[in-house]
């Protein structure tokens, strides 16, 4: 029995459950907002204890990265991400997760050839692309004197 592409597409569409888009968007928005509010709360707390603005923001980011790494290592962050979706991928927590996850996955291969070698397998291309784009952008700004 041969099925055409159009027929297969119709069958797949009928068999696939409808995604609750509004619910997913609200969960993602709430989770992302919670992560950002937590970082802001840490920043305000650090300012209250005498850190200047730059130090307070640095401590807040370090805390979010550390918390994400710990939750990823404990297997909790993945469960949260499954529940709330894309909201956990606020850039800093998503980046921390993308560094820790492959490191955990390949730890059986050893500390150097497993954990260290695979740690940036997901985040590495993002870092390289981001730095390359920033360099090109900076060069263009410099050439045209737009700084």
How would you concisely characterize the structure shown here?
The chain has 147 residues and is mostly helical.
Describe the structure.
The model has no long low-confidence stretch (mean pLDDT 86). Helix 3 packs parallel to helix 5. The chain is an all-alpha fold and 147 residues long. The protein has helices spanning 5-15, 21-48, 53-73, 76-84, 91-105, 111-118, 123-143.
Task: Summarize the helices and strands and which ones pair or pack.
Blueprint: H1 5-15, H2 21-48, H3 53-73, H4 76-84, H5 91-105, H6 111-118, H7 123-143
- What is the 3D form? extended
- How much strand content do the residues show? under 5%
Order of helices and strands: HHHHHHH
> Which secondary-structure class do the elements indicate?
mainly alpha
Q: What's the number of helices?
A: 7
Q: What value does the average pLDDT take?
A: 86
Computed Rg: 21 Å
The helical percent reads over 70%
Tally of DSSP β-strands: 0
User: Which stretches of 5+ consecutive residues score pLDDT under 50?
Assistant: none
Largest sheet: none
Kindly report how far apart the N and C termini lie: 66 Å
List keywords for this structure.
mainly alpha; about 150 residues; single chain; 7 helices
């Amino acid at each position: 029995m041969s099925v055409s592409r159009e027929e297969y597409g119709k069958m797949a569409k009928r068999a696939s459950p409808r995604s609750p888009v509004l619910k997913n968007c609200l969960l993602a928005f709430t989770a992302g907002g919670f992560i950002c509010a937590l970082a802001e709360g840490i920043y305000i707390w650090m300012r209250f204890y005498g850190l200047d603005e730059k130090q307070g923001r640095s401590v807040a980011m370090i805390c979010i990265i550390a918390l994400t790494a710990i939750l990823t290592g404990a297997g909790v962050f993945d469960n949260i991400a499954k529940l709330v979706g894309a909201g956990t991928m606020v850039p800093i927590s998503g980046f921390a997760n993308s560094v820790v996850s492959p490191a955990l996955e390949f730890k059986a291969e050893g500390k150097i050839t497993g954990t260290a070698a695979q740690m940036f397998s997901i985040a590495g291309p993002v870092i390289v692309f981001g730095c390359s784009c920033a360099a090109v952008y900076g060069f263009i700004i410099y050439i045209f004197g737009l700084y």
